[in-house]
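Student: Send me a single protein entry containing the residue sequence and its fold in token form, directly below this note:

Tutor:
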Amino acid sequence: MTEKIGVLGKKSPQRTGVERVVNAPLPTVYGKFQAVGYLDHDRGDEQVALVYGEIGTDDVLTRLHSECLTGDAFGSQHCECGDQLASALRAVVAEGSGVVVYLRGHEGRGIGLLGKLRAMALQAEGLDTVEANLALGLPVDARDYGVAAEMLHDLGVNSVRLMSNNPRKREALQRHGIQVAETVPLLIPPCENNITYLRTKRERLDHHLPHLDAVVSSS
């Protein structure tokens, strides 16, 4: 915890890191979860982990899901995010236990909603998702997974079976002290509207998407 100087010259404490604020039951169409709410004092973001069943400490089936309003809420076919979130929630219910960490502040790989929409407009003109971010002077991927690791630590999780196609998530968790026992692919069948986006994720962002091979070979 750091300290700051108050208006009268006195030092007052300023919280840092992630604080658990609330734990509430959350019945969903997938099953009944516990929504564990956190406040990230460093960034000011409100975060949530959806916990299903008795998760234990080791090899917990886990998804780190980056916030995507267009995909998660609106069903956008520009990406596969909404389908990935639904698949992850179904998977932890089928497993009998698990965690889905929903990471706010990750919209558009960390460039924000308006930045993402501007990038999507450029993609409609022919740029790929990497080129569009760079054309706007924005980072290709500005996400940080430290807060996710802190939330998992708070939940008592030491190691995970990580539902992800992105090797950077695995590397980030391990860097922050969460062991990744296994990477579980989360492969969503592509559609006409997102195949170019998915190919770019595989070719330029190193995502593991072997199911695209058949689509590429037939195109």
